[in-house]
Write a structure and sequence with these properties.
Number of strands: 0
Shape: elongated
Radius of gyration: 19 Å
Structural class: mainly alpha
Largest sheet: none
Length: 182
């Protein structure tokens, strides 16, 4: 581990504010980059500062949970920032209470509209992985093209289509389970 990182971790663990200052100085670019990957729409830009502050606070608060054998410090901090940004994005969508579909192929629209009209859609997508949640929100809420989503997440377009297909199947199963219980 790099000596700067060790010093930052030691000072954060000791709850020394210079550790926080060093964290911001050395890792703010990585953290902001991670946040911008998730909050990449113009309407999300107002959330970036709040997410960054919340991310730094979470790192400060949870530094004792960092395990250098599991991940590099930069990876750990970026993961915290991404998760925080995803939480903010989902919360923002819930607050807007919008149905995020435009005209698509008639058959698909009818099926997918049912998913978005369900009150529990956000709780449904919580069952997907964080990356799949981001793919769903980008595709269905923001109407991003699969190619654009793939570029933002450094994945292939085929993987995006595959994840959308598997995710829809999983959500459909969850909806059917919910209907059977009623």
């Amino acid at each position: 581990m790099e000596s700067n990182v060790k010093v930052i971790i030691e000072r954060l663990t000791a709850k020394d504010f210079t550790g926080l200052e060093l964290l911001i100085e050395h890792f703010s670019f990585n953290i902001l980059s991670a946040i911008h990957q998730i909050l990449n729409r113009p309407e999300d830009k107002s959330l970036v500062d709040d997410v960054a502050n919340e991310s730094f606070y979470k790192i400060w608060k949870n530094i004792s949970r960092y395990d250098e054998t599991k991940a590099a410090f930069s990876t750990w901090t970026s993961t915290i920032a991404k998760r925080t940004a995803l939480d903010y994005k989902k919360k923002n969508i819930k607050q807007q209470q919008l149905i995020p579909l435009e005209e698509k192929q008639a058959e698909l629209v009818a099926q997918e509209t049912v998913l978005f009209e369900q009150e529990g859609f956000m709780s449904l997508i919580d069952q997907l992985s964080e990356e799949d949640q981001l793919i769903f929100l980008s595709y269905y809420y923001y109407n991003d093209a699969p190619k654009e989503i793939a570029e933002n997440l450094n994945l292939s377009t085929d993987i995006i289509y595959n994840r959308l297909s598997r995710g829809k199947k999983k959500l459909k199963e969850q909806l059917l389970k919910g209907v059977e219980r009623k």
